[in-house]
Amino acid sequence: MKIMINGESYETQKGDTILKVARRNNIYIPTLCHSDALPGLATCRFCIVEVIDGEECKVAASCISPANPGNREIEVITDSDKIKRMRKVIAMLLQARCPNNKEIEKFAEAFGVEKRKVNRFKLEKGEDCALCGLCVKACKAVGVGVLSLVNKGIYKKLDISDKSTQRCIGCGSCANVCPTNAIDIIDKDGKREIWGNKFKMVKCDCCGEYFATEEHVKYAYDKLGIEQPGKFYCSRCKREQAVQGMNHVLESI
């Protein structure tokens, strides 16, 4: 099937979202809360587009909207004046929540929002967090699920209490996907600190680099149901060993 985006026709695949088709064809749709490794969230709303489906025209989040709803071909407009105005308002609201965040500042500038002067002696706890929920999704995808968004409206926040994070394995997935760099993760001298927890890290037996926490390694092997090996290798060294092994096989043919 096909989809019409900004007046051009594009091929779609089963299960495609509007955003996926757009990115595959180098059509720019801004996102903040989206990660290709995780299901769409539709939290930030920056990815909104106009969707014309028959006689119906609506605004929808492209990260969760199917490219062919009900096997119908639709038309999408990604950058209409209406959409631009709505994205600007969203950027203004987000900037008001995170006034000192550099990543949010870049987003706001891109949508024509002037930088606001905020006079504060210090940041409020969690002020850099855009409440997008990506860290929550990543934590659940790992299988640990210690993070959650609680409350609603202006009281909505990320639950980072000691009780909620004491089961953290220090994998760092939450920090890796955070679009505003709001999650502090410190790796130093073979130790990692995140969410107020401290972890010992495992060293690669090949290159000597620390690459994961002991809890993360144990969790992974327990989940696989296999015993931990006598030696550990980081992903980079594993790839190099795999390439060397393949080269050795090819040379022997």
UniProtKB/TrEMBL annotation:
<keyword id="KW-0479">Metal-binding</keyword>
<dbReference type="Pfam" id="PF13510">
    <property type="entry name" value="Fer2_4"/>
</dbReference>
<dbReference type="GO" id="GO:0046872">
    <property type="term" value="F:metal ion binding"/>
</dbReference>
<dbReference type="InterPro" id="IPR036010">
    <property type="entry name" value="2Fe-2S_ferredoxin-like_sf"/>
</dbReference>
<keyword id="KW-0408">Iron</keyword>
<feature type="domain" description="4Fe-4S ferredoxin-type">
    <location>
        <begin position="119"/>
        <end position="152"/>
    </location>
</feature>
<dbReference type="InterPro" id="IPR017896">
    <property type="entry name" value="4Fe4S_Fe-S-bd"/>
</dbReference>
<keyword id="KW-0411">Iron-sulfur</keyword>
<dbReference type="Pfam" id="PF00037">
    <property type="entry name" value="Fer4"/>
</dbReference>
<dbReference type="InterPro" id="IPR017900">
    <property type="entry name" value="4Fe4S_Fe_S_CS"/>
</dbReference>
<dbReference type="InterPro" id="IPR001041">
    <property type="entry name" value="2Fe-2S_ferredoxin-type"/>
</dbReference>
<dbReference type="GO" id="GO:0051536">
    <property type="term" value="F:iron-sulfur cluster binding"/>
</dbReference>
<protein>
    <submittedName>
        <fullName>NADH dehydrogenase</fullName>
    </submittedName>
</protein>
<feature type="domain" description="4Fe-4S ferredoxin-type">
    <location>
        <begin position="156"/>
        <end position="188"/>
    </location>
</feature>
<feature type="domain" description="2Fe-2S ferredoxin-type">
    <location>
        <begin position="1"/>
        <end position="80"/>
    </location>
</feature>
